[in-house]
Amino acid sequence: MPRILVAPHHFEIGGSQLTALELAAEVARDAAHEVVLYAPDGALAERARATGLELHLSNLRESAPSPGRIRELAALVERRGIDLVHAYEWAPAVDAAYGARALRGTPVLATILSMDYPGFLPGAVPLILGTSALRERAIGEGRAAHLLEPSVDTRLFDAAAVPDAAVCAARGEAGAAPGDVLITVIGRLAEQLKLEGLLTLIEACGRLADAHQVRLAIVGDGSARARVAAAAQAANREAGREIVRLLGSRDDPRPHYLAADIAVGMGSSALRAMALGRPLLVQGERGFWRVADSTSLPGFLARGWFGEDAGSAAAADRCASELARLIRMSPSERAGLGAWGRDLVVGRYGLTRAADVLRGLYADVLAAPRPSKRQRIAASVGLARDIAAHRVAMRHPALQASFRRATGRSTAAVA
Length: 415
Prior knowledge:
The chain is α/β, with parallel strands linked by helices. It has helices at residues 15-28, 45-50, 67-80, 90-104, 132-140, 164-173, 195-208, 225-239, 254-259, 267-275, 297-303, 315-328, 331-348, 351-367, 373-395, 400-407, and strands spanning 3-7, 34-40, 54-58, 84-88, 108-112, 127-129, 145-147, 181-186, 214-219, 244-248, 262-265, 280-283, 289-291.
């Protein structure tokens, strides 16, 4: 029985780490794989314990490469006889490449569910990417890359599994009156990827408040909370009433999704909202806002539940326009759109299907020829060189083209 070490990049509540935890538990259901978890201690630790999987928590949270985490990973791999390390996102992938692959020859597989991946990720580590567009680009860069779209536990994220009383309580927490249209966004309040859209969403709801009884509930926490709170206070002052409320993080976000008349989200959060039958506005970057429906679906299937526009001062106008489309729908029309989304997620993004695909990828990686010690050392030297070059390129934009020419890889920013 292969023993798989699953290593999320952290254990705070968020799409990538929830996907890692759900898939780890689902893979272990077949009793043909033993799954061990390793992650920095965080809010998801109790949920991880509830899966019954063996859990190893770390106090290390620094960025990669981390000598301490490299040593921890290598020691854990040796002590527990790990056959394969499955890392989620770039930091544990880099440390596993040093600590498991280079030192011990243990194969490493990396899932990147971000909207891009950094070019310094070691080419010898196969990637699992969440969109066909990213996979095609990675293959074009000479990487081994596989497609596994974000998955959702549709048994858990099912409206029938959530008590009505919890939904009513969530709507009350948001301060929504019976006639209000409640708009809800659930996710980390992070500087990267999220903040721009959150500030635009608050501004758009402020513009809509004159013509519509809208409420915006923001569920989540993170480093950008102070800036989000300041924008919410400004919008409330401008409207002369509370239209935006920050609720903080929630261990179980399902009642808050279900309390919403309209959900806003990206990536895994978008899929969870649709799994619960909520009509969805997809948030991206640089002014990207699109209602999820049959017209916009082909684009989302190609690039994931995200997008980028050209960026302009009209971002709040576009957001308000898309929200107004959903607000003007009748309750039955919104329910129909929500049912369409639920059917899509169940048919394409279900957890059971994703776990079957992942088991197959594990088998392929375990069956592949192992590199020699010399090859592993050369790969580690190359990884160190690429990380250093990437950091220099990110500090000096004029050097980014040189990095791409030298490595054949992208210069996606990382935290």
